[in-house]
């Protein structure tokens, strides 16, 4: 296959979507410590892919390998359609990287940081000035552009960091925990920036520890645990695979509670709060069945709430002890 054709690792009913980033059997070790134990990743072009996992899971190492900063020990790796083993330079030309720690130079102004990045991309002075001006405006940094970057807030520095990454107009961007340390407003602003990038056709490979962030942004999520992919899918697919969904019925009438508890033997009782917890996937069909039963039995519940597993549940289930991850992996995959 020519290198210009982006690799695919999965196919459903024919050809899979072109992969902006593809890894098959990615392995990386430092001495006796295996950091990545043969992982497979497939990131469709023009999407947000989130690599989720606890500290030490191998997220940053994966980014370093796929962005050509570190060489893999083994694996068939393609980024932007280029084989990292034979043509890493071409891959570098297609990507931008924003690491955990800001690349901003605090001793110079925001504009000077941008122009310095333009020089590194070998843009002419006029092209560099134009690119800097456009990006500073896009990221709402014009008013601060003449001030030393050391005076910027954390959110402003992060925006400048990403703006600098975009000077070379990369089509694939690696963001390694881009919102760590930001306040909630700055984090939401960053989410808006990421959504805009994808709207423009950019592929975003995101690592994060914030479960809400992955849920909000990612088209697909891979959960990395101890150097291996424990599960991969959309947020909803992952949530459905974790047990624990239920419907909670709460009563104020003790007689109604006792009648419901007597007939709903599969329910878990809470006699103190007069509540019943019924296992459920939260589907419309199951909710209708419960409501129809209550009507037929002439029992009135004062409150009905649906509880479905969230990414917190997924995270704790898949990044706990190895035996738990191993037990759930086959079902989720």
UniProtKB/TrEMBL annotation:
Topology of this chain in the membrane? Peripheral membrane protein
Which keywords does this chain's UniProt record carry?
A: Antibiotic resistance, ATP-binding, Nucleotide-binding, Transport
Q: What domain of life?
A: Bacteria
Which GO molecular-function terms appear in the entry? ATP binding
Q: Does the keyword Acyltransferase apply?
A: no
Query: Which segments constitute the ABC transporter domain?
Result: 21-251
Pfam families registered for this protein in UniProt: ABC_tran
Localized where? Cell membrane
Q: What is this protein called?
A: ATP-binding cassette domain-containing protein
Q: Which organism is it from?
A: Streptomyces kunmingensis
Give the organism's phylogenetic lineage. Answer: Bacteria, Bacillati, Actinomycetota, Actinomycetes, Kitasatosporales
